[in-house]
Each structure stands twice: as structure tokens, then as C-alpha cells.
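Input chain follows. Return C-alpha cells only.
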Amino acid sequence: MLLGVTGGIAAYKAAELVRLLRGAGASVRVVMTAGAQEFITPLTLQALSGNPVHTELLDSTAEAAMGHIELARWADVLLIAPATADCLARLVQGRADDLLGAVSLACEAPKAIAPAMNRAMWDNPATQANLDTLQARGLHVFGPDSGEQACGEIGPGRMEAPAVLVERLSGLFRNGRLAGRRVVVTAGPTREAIDPVRFISNHSSGRMGFAVARAAREAGAEVILVSGPVALETPPGVRRIDVISAADMHAAVLEQVPGSDIFIAVAAVADYRPATVAGQKLHKRETAMTLELQRNPDILADVAALPDPPFTVGFAAETELVLQGAKNKRVAKRVDMIAANLVGAGHGFDVDENALHVFWENGECELPRTGKTRLAAQLVSLVADQLDSNNTHDKVISINAKDSA
């Protein structure tokens, strides 16, 4: 994506914004105005983005000396953050006498602004009229927030937090690969009650499942996310159903799957639950206690066994023999695709990065360790490839960071 930075005190937040965008899997290029360079150096944003920072409209090093056209064609999304009052006015006028203005005019990708200015400047009728004009032209406006400002005043005009901007940007990256498809995704752990106080669960944070739901939505699908207990915000545009136990998740999935095209079972569902649940808290009396457990329903296998099942994708979390375990699971449960991942200390659960090895009939693909947002997008792309393909050929695909940037 392309980030434009203009000359306001909030320009310092661009460093954190670039860092978070890279962590989410985005390839970032930065355009800075002359004013922005008074607040933060191009070298800082170059180091964080991994790409040269663009500052000059007439750049002899650009192809055909038309750097603004190159950048405009390259961008999937253009975000200007911070967008000052002057920036809004220039965008309304269609000014193209600096690089950011020219790129903004030439860019046909979705565009967004994150306004940041003094609260009186924000409330000024001229600024509000400019804002109305830009929104009427289809620009997305993120913020601003209200609070204490650098000038000491309090009110609207603070640039939205970088983490919020990254979340809001996700809705602009839809690539249409799954347009018209309905996708059901499970995420997180389940909790199997022992008594009103205690339960059996696991270390799943739900991050991978939520990332898959977000990626499917960004690919244009209608997405239903069935989630166990997690502390995560629902991805934009995703319908979420909260459940607690494996039985709850099983019932919710079987209710939502009919009419769906894809089912992706990312949740770490408990295999067993206590045979009986105590009505009151079990008090400590003996040196040992025995719990009788019984099998939970197998959600993935039950969906795959439906008379008209969707394209089913499972996850195989293993601590050893990862690849063989996943292959066996795919065959035993008769699912279309399975993603194997190593779990344990520093792997899989409750971390920001993951790696997958994906198997399907006569094919496989290795997805190296990267951020879960990026990994989810790669997985969803694989699913779309399989749905688009009439037949699968024997192949091993290796995807690296460059391929998926």
C-alpha cells in the first residue's frame, strides 16, 4: 500500500503505522511532503518500510521520469496519514504541484485520509466543506479522534491511532477472489466445564482464525465467524457467533454451513469434555481427583460427511510428526484441504507468527513463517485457487515473502 505523510505534528505516528502495516503483511511505500520532512526524516520511514521514500515530483531516477504514475499504478490503497487541513484543501482543488498531490490525482485505487489538525481548524466551515466534497468523491475518512492535542487544547482533531488505522484499512483491500462465496470459519479454543468455576481448555488465542476470517472477507466473501472465548475484536464486515463449548460450536457450525461454499476449521476444539458437570464448585478434599471424560463431536469430520458439503479446510496442530499427522487426518476425515502447523513453546498458539504446510489431493504447498495476517491471506488464496481449478495437478509450491508481497 502507499502511505502519504503530510506536515503535521502527528507525522511522528507514521513510523508506528508503517511498522504495523509491515507486521500485517503489507508492502509499504511512503510519499512525504516537504512539511512532513520537518517532523520526521525520510530515513526513518525508509528503514521501517524497507523501501526508498519518495519526496520529489520530478525524479530523474523514476521510469520515464514519471514517478507519480509509477506509484499510482503500484498502489492497492492510498492512505494519507496525517492529512492536514492544507492537505484536504489541496485534494479538493486537485493540486498536482507536489508528488503527493500528483499521485493522489493519478491513483485509481481506493483512497483514504486520516485527518489531524487543531480542533478549531477541524471545526472551521471551510474544512468541513472540503471534507464533504472529498467524501462525495469517494474518499474514505478515518477519524479524527477527540482528546488533548499538541497545542494544549482539547477537542476533535487527533489522528486515529495507527493500530485503528490498520484495522480500518483492511476493508479496502478486498481482491474479489471469493466474491459471491459464503465462508464459515471457526476460531479460538473451546471451554469444557468441570464445575461452575473450572474448565478444560487450551492455549489458542484465536488470532489465526480471526486472520483467516478477515482475509476471506477481504477476498470478497460473506463470512460467518464462529468463535470460542477470545479477547479479539471482530474483523470488519464479518458476522460473529460466540460460543463456549465444543457442543455449542458444533451446533452453530451445522446451522450455518448449509448454503456455504467453504468451511475453514481453524478452532482448537477440545477432543474431550467431562462426562458430568458438577452443579457446585468442587472443593479440595483428596490428594487426587479423577475426571471421567467423553468424546466431543468432530466438527470437521461431520461437515465433510454432509450429503452436499462445502469445500472443507482443516487445521492439524501437532507437536511432532507434523506433516504425516496432517496427511493422515485429511484422509481419515475426507476433507479437501488441511493445513499443518507446529504448536508448542513459541509456535502456533498465542504468538503473532505462524507457518503452515498445506495438503490437498495430489498437491501441497509450504507457507513459511510470517505474520498471521499475511499467512491467512496466502491460505485463502490457495483455497480460491483450488475452487477455481477444475483439476489439481501434482505439484509442490514454495511461496516466499517476495511472491506474496
